[in-house]
Amino acid sequence: MGDVILEMKDIDKSFPGVHALDHVSLEVRKGEVHALMGENGAGKSTLMKVLTGIYTKDDGEIIYEGKNVEFHNTREAQDNGVVIVHQELNMVGDLTVAQNIFIGREPRKGFMIDDKKMIEDSKALFERLKIHIDPTEKMSDLTVGKQQMCEIAKAISHNCKVIIFDEPSAALTEKEIEDLFTIIRDLREQQLGIVYISHRMDEIKVITDRVTVMRDGTYVGTLITKDCTKEDIINMMVGRVIYEKPKEKSMVAPDAPVVLKVEHLNAGKMVQDVSFELKKGEILGFSGLMGAGRTETARAIFGADPKQSGDIYINGQKVEINSPEDAVRHGIGYLSEDRRRYGVVVQKTIIENSTLACLEDYMNGLFIDKGKEKEVSEKYIKELATKTPSSDQLVVNLSGGNQQKVVIAKWLVKNSDILIFDEPTRGIDVGAKNEIYKLMNRLAEQGKSIIMISSEMTEILRMSDRIVVMCEGKKTGEIAIEEASQELIMDKATRNIQD
Fold first, then answer.
1. Full-model pTM
2. Dihedral sign computed on CA atoms, order 414, 325, 278, 337
């Protein structure tokens, strides 16, 4: 590691009702990958938003390349070589990939935008990232994982000296993560200062040099990565020990009734002849690599995407689900992997989001019963341990993990009997994950039935009573939790022949 390129000293920041940063400090050196860790709501993203000019600090100093600085917006930060790759996607869906990457700084030929050069520059970036994306493709047509890679390419396209990765791998496959790490190591060799925010402990040990831990808006400490253990970091983050071990046996009674039966479901090339059953009180894990068709299967069941053929039975009765409204009416709730796009209305309050799926239940004549709405939202704020100053807080002001809890609350308020959780802990810290795991187990004990789609093998093995594995749009296996192992799941996830 080289000289210090960035130092943030005693940074203080408050919002109405929240002391988000309480005199936090961070030091980043040239040629260093510096992990910034903490539970959701610890202040990590807020600290980086202060650095990049999204928020104005109330107190403290930012010293960059030996000079006191204060950026007033992200453009000013970018122009000075400080770039952030946000956890939440900031792309314009109706524009092409190339237009998104160079938006606001398009290459020109005279007075006209040079589309040819923009496409060529985008291709060069993707070659460097070792990913295959067509720069002329519409952004909204890409998967979440590919959109994230475009966000990373956009950041790298700036002539940056400090780059902040905020949960960059949350939606990536293992191969994409390997490619990302190759890029990060290359940037480190070029003496860039890199801040890496992630909740994935294994990644921290592989890619980072030092770890700074925050808790509740305060600085806890900085460790040298190679000299500390995963347990050391977790203990600093949450102040308690959290154990993760696989489930040893199914919690579902052998004679439990089937609440959802899907037969020969087809919906485009990503859902081909998929059949399975879900029992009362069961957590059915859906595993597979990115692009296996798990999300597409869930969306077809929920009516978000049209199915071409196949039958769906709920409690033994064949049902027609042609829209999410039909699914909700039949007792199905769906928590999307892209919470900001499909899960919450970020400019509305927690109260308003909590009752979105069943607003008619909170009507008093022509008006909404605000008192009843507030009461139920506060019940789930308490039950889910959502960090917020009040139920009137706008969702946009919550951390990513707490936004996820608001989505979960919405379906709990609706009291859906069948819940589809698509990547329920994506971008959520180890402490909040534990809370959601406990909640899911409690829901299953109460008789709710859960389909859980997850790309994290430890999560699948910890939570599932039974596991369905998919590859390239097909179901390639079904495994009882007693027989499950990472090796067996991966074997079935990499072959597209139905067992």
1. 0.61
2. negative
Residue 301 token pair: 């069941």
HSE toward the beta carbon, residue 197, CA cutoff 13 A: 27
CA-wise closest residue to 61 among 35, 21, 25, 36: 25
35 Cβ neighbours under 8 A, 6+ residues apart: 196, 197, 198, 204, 208, 210, 211, 212, 225
With contact defined as beta carbons under 8 Å apart, do 451 and 58 qualify? no
Q: Give the residue with greater pLDDT, 75 vs 277.
A: 277
Neighbours of 109 (CB within 10 A): 10
What is the three-class DSSP state of 259? strand
As a dihedral over the C-alpha atoms of residue 251, residue 256, residue 257, residue 263, rounded to 10 degrees, the angle is 50
Q: Could you tell me which of 206, 236, 194 has the C-alpha nearest to residue 218? A: 236
Dihedral sign from CA coordinates of 113, 114, 115, 121: negative
The 10 Å Cβ neighbour count of residue 390 is 15
User: What CATH class does 4-238 carry?
Assistant: alpha beta
Cβ neighbors of 438 (< 8 A, separation 6 or more) are: none
Q: Does domain 258-493 have CATH number 3.40.50.300?
A: yes
User: 21 forms bridges with which residues in the sheet?
Assistant: 13
Coil vs helix vs strand at 384: helix
Handedness of CA 186, 187, 193, 194 (dihedral sign): negative
Instruction: Report whether 442 contacts 452 (CB < 8 A).
Output: no
Q: Is 201 helix (H, G, I), strand (E, B) or coil?
A: helix
Show the beta-strand stretches assigned E in 209-257. 210-215, 218-224
Q: C-alpha 308: how far from its chain's center?
A: 29
Distances in Å between the alpha carbon of 256 and those of 276, 409, 417, 439, 445?
Answer: 15, 26, 14, 21, 12
**Identical fold at 4-238 and 258-493?**
yes
Q: Among all chains, which residue has been given the structure tokens 């071409």?
A: 308
Q: Identify whether the C-beta of residue 42 lies closer than 8 Å to the C-beta of residue 214.
A: yes
pLDDT in tens, 364-417: 888 999 999 999 999 999 988 888 999 999 998 887 778 888 988 898 888 889
User: Residue ranges of the domains in the chain?
Assistant: 4-238, 258-493
Report yes or no: 81 and 159 within 8 Å, Cβ to Cβ. yes
CB 137 within 8 A of CB 149: no
